[in-house]
Design goal:
The chain has about 375 residues and is an alpha+beta fold. It is built from 10 helices and 8 strands. The chain has 3 domains: about 5-105, Acyl-CoA dehydrogenase/oxidase, N-terminal domain (Butyryl-Coa Dehydrogenase, subunit A, domain 1, Orthogonal Bundle), CATH 1.10.540; about 110-210, Butyryl-CoA Dehydrogenase, subunit A, domain 2 (Beta Barrel); about 215-365, Up-down Bundle (Butyryl-CoA Dehydrogenase, subunit A, domain 3). It is about 50% helix and about 10% strand.
Length: about 375
């Protein structure tokens, strides 16, 4: 087993799993798990070895997210968003931040979704103007994972001066003018710290720009979206695996005499377990094929990237629904853990780009149309 998998399994066993129920029940940010991942070198998994990182691949990151999601969806989502941000920071960010991420001392996240443009992240309404010896950012971000907990945000805005749909910035989370509600109280992923973030006259140096002004969409499509899509699919797969494990253990340990009958209702739970297994394995195959398409530069790589999250998110909802069904009344008791995966799968499903948005983009690819239109506020 690769060392990064040994490391994540150890963190899960010692920290993440013992805290998963409390993180969910209290809506507490999984700080202990994130700190443990940092100490184990896993927050720096995608960082280059030249800055002290692990030099890992997207496939390595997907394996970590899958394992985490099977146990604690909130810890997995925080890590997923960190990896999604870390890639572009590694490519375009300052060396001191790259080194801090590599050492596990810096947690980052994406700040894309906004009030007004919502899931159409490619057309931000937030602004960037020169002021006060730097650049003033004003925005109403609708949801930011790890809001107030991360050390930095990969932030989108309208371009500063150039033509183009958007520009990206690296914004320290403690910058004056940033604010967010105290906490998150939602259906699922209750510990991932997702809240709105408001920027009111936030001043950053122009050097905080990631890449070129106006080229943010190209950078996002090349360095952020593929990672986010594949890691989201890995998250959904992990949620499925957790639900299958819980449901299988419940049925195996439940002394249901009718499960041994060849006819009657007892055969149905086994059929549903088989359906769950087949569905999860299909998603695993799609993720593996997508990673292969990216690695080999196949012509259908972008299509596969678009398909992964759309397919896995919907399949995860279906699988966790079946897990609730086969576990019967016990599934509605939180100690079994099935209903936690059930809720987490639905929360993850609506993260932008949503399934409907992805299906529209996939259809555009198939019809040879532009991937995206202008957002309609």
């Amino acid at each position: 087993m690769p060392s990064h998998l040994d490391a994540v399994d150890g963190v899960i066993r010692d920290v993440v799993a013992p805290n998963a129920v409390q993180v969910d029940s209290t809506g507490t940010f999984p700080r202990a798990g994130i700190d443990a991942l940092g100490k184990a070198g896993l927050l720096g998994l995608l960082s280059a070895t030249e800055v002290g990182g692990q030099g890992g691949t997207l496939a390595d990151a997907a394996a970590v997210i899958e394992r985490l999601a099977a146990v604690c969806g909130s810890t997995a989502m925080v890590t997923l968003m960190h990896y999604s941000a870390a890639g572009i920071i590694e490519a375009l960010g300052p060396r001191d931040v790259r080194e801090a991420i590599a050492k596990g001392n810096h947690l980052s996240t994406l700040a894309f979704s906004e009030v007004g443009s919502r899931s159409q992240f490619w057309s931000p309404l937030s602004t960037a103007v020169r002021a006060g010896g730097g650049v003033r950012l004003d925005a109403q971000k609708s949801w930011v994972t790890s809001a107030g907990q991360a050390d930095s945000y990969v932030w989108s805005s309208k371009p500063l001066a150039a033509e183009g749909p958007m520009t990206l910035w690296l914004v320290p989370s403690k910058t004056a003018g940033l604010s967010q509600p105290a906490g998150f109280d939602g259906l699922g992923l209750r510990g991932n710290g997702s809240t709105p973030v408001t920027a009111a006259g936030v001043i950053v140096p122009e050097s905080a720009m990631l890449g070129e002004d106006g080229k943010g969409l190209d950078q996002a499509l090349g360095m952020i979206i593929p990672a986010f899509q594949i890691l989201s699919a890995a998250f959904a797969l992990g949620t499925m695996e957790g639900a299958i494990t819980e449901a299988s253990a419940h049925l195996t340990g439940a002394r249901y005499e009718h499960l041994d009958r060849s006819l009657g209702e007892g055969v149905l739970p086994r059929h549903d377990l088989a359906r769950m297994r087949l569905a999860a394995d299909r998603e695993r195959a799609l993720i593996a094929d997508t990673l292969a398409a990216i690695t080999t530069g196949r012509a259908d790589a972008m299509l596969r990237v678009l398909e992964t999250k759309a397919s896995a998110a919907e399949t995860s909802v279906a699988v966790t629904d079946l897990a609730m069904k086969v576990s019967g009344g016990a599934a509605f008791r939180k100690e079994l853990g099935v209903e936690r995966r059930f809720r987490d799968s639905r929360a993850a499903r609506v993260m932008a780009p949503t399934t409907d948005a992805l299906l529209d983009i996939i259809g555009r690819v198939l019809m040879g149309q532009p991937l995206m239109d202008e957002a309609t506020p």
